[in-house]
Amino acid sequence: FQNRNHILYLLEEYQTLVLVGDTGCGKSTQIPQYLVEAGWCEGEKMVGVTEPRRVAATTLATRVADENGTMLGQTVGYSIRFDDCCQHGVTKIKYMTEGILMREMMADPLLRGYSVIMLDEVHERTLFTDILMGLLKKILRKQKKLRLIVTSATMDAEHLCNFFNQSTEKDKKSAVIMS
Fold this sequence. Notes:
There is one protein chain. The chain has six helices and eight strands, in the order αβαβαβββαβαβαβ. The protein has an eight-stranded mixed sheet with strand order 4-3-5-2-6-7-1-8, with helices on both faces. Belongs to the DEAD box helicase family. DEAH subfamily. Its EC number is 3.6.4.13. It is an enzyme of class 3 (hydrolase).
């Protein structure tokens, strides 16, 4: 993925990054690893990656753990309904279904355990995706250090960027598009 440094730069500058890329280009597997390498998981913070389907969450977690040479459930884990393969304080990248993130929001409305949330496959537009986007927009207003990455293979990026841009200053944006 040749855009590693540019992605990291945009996350330092903007609270929300709308990332459009072809299927299989490494959005789901490489970006979370870049974030860990760049220090986004200091302390007990994690990168949370939501997937619309359980099989995607478990498969991606397994693949990224293999790429890192670690056991699944340590640095890289997953959480789906009835199966949580993460260790508190140890797991840095957590793949999960959208429903799990919604459940976590009920226990911790500001998502204090995360430094970055990545909503993957938003072009599939599930009900959970839409609810999460609305809730995350509100959370980002309160949690200025939290970052959001919205990834899609086909979605209208301009529309998403406008939705998340919360700045009241005309020359300062809080969301940016990268394709």
